[in-house]
Amino acid sequence: MNQTKGLPSKGFVTVASKRKQFIMGADNLKESILDYYPEAKITLFTEQHFIDDPECQTYFRDFDQVIATPAGTNREKMWGMANSPYDLTFYMDADIEIRHKDIENVFDHLEDGKYDMVYVNLTKEGAKHFAEWNWGPNLYDNGWRGVPDHLAHCGGVALYDTRNPLIKEFMMDWYTLHLKQVNGDWSPSEYNYIKKGNFRQWDQLTLWWLIYHSPKYKELKWKFFEDNYRWNYFTSFGFNKDGTHNCSIVDPSRDYWKTSPDPVVVHFSSWMDKYGDKGFL
């Protein structure tokens, strides 16, 4: 990999499994990154049968690397995250599009090694846009001081520094524990206090446990993006006729939207035709 001597390599990772529609989405994501950041290195992780499919070859152009995943589950993304070829990685779901030149500066949020990981914070005001958000209150004997009784971290984007070897282990544990979780083979004691909903289907719940409860990772340094939803603006948040966005509504406790109102990352999620050929709706 070409990089300036002494400087960390930087790149983007996305993962497309299960359906061709996600490969098409990953292609669109790649093109939108390159529109604003022509020198960007972008790696796609996908299933081997897609890599071998002649009809998919057009979607693989301009990727730095295309790497096969070990399986075809809905959450191969964490395996891809763990195996990023870059020192500094910004992972994004395949149903995302870049809309701002600040994508070139995303790695600055790691603050030259001060933080190992950076995430988007899922806020109470935005909760109605998520399938599930809170189960509260936390009922553990010690009150789980400082631990949210909801899914606080968005799993759709993640910025991280793999020069800390624990980060790769973190991402791989996220992958393997989530698969065990959805199969009913792993359920830590903290899950016993989640009495409603179907939270065990979500990889964000595994992420919540790893960040707040795993002794192995308690020393990792993480934060939320200061300009939070600029880095994962769900289309369901809305687009106003005057061209403005609604960060002030879904994230009122922060004030970044007063000076930097436009999102960098737009996440189509429910606005993507994941089974047909309509693309982003």
Keywords:
alpha/beta; 281 residues; globular; 14% strand
Characterise the protein shown here:
There is one protein chain. The chain has helices at residues 20-36, 48-51, 77-82, 165-182, 203-212, 247-250; strands spanning 10-16, 42-46, 65-68, 88-92, 96-98, 117-119, 157-161, 222-224, 233-234, 265-267. The protein is α/β, with parallel strands linked by helices. It has a single domain (10-271), classed as Spore Coat Polysaccharide Biosynthesis Protein SpsA, Chain A (Alpha-Beta Complex). The chain has a seven-stranded mixed β-sheet. Strands 5-10-9 form a three-stranded mixed β-sheet.
Biggest β-sheet, characterized?
7 strands, mixed
CATH class: Alpha Beta
Helix-strand pattern: EHEHEHEEEEHHEEHE
CATH architecture: Alpha-Beta Complex
The coarse overall form would be globular
CATH names the topology as: Spore Coat Polysaccharide Biosynthesis Protein SpsA, Chain A
Quick description:
With 281 residues, this protein is α/β, with parallel strands linked by helices. The protein has helices at 20-36, 48-51, 77-82, 165-182, 203-212, 247-250, and strands spanning 10-16, 42-46, 65-68, 88-92, 96-98, 117-119, 157-161, 222-224, 233-234, 265-267. The chain has a single domain, classed as Spore Coat Polysaccharide Biosynthesis Protein SpsA, Chain A (Alpha-Beta Complex).
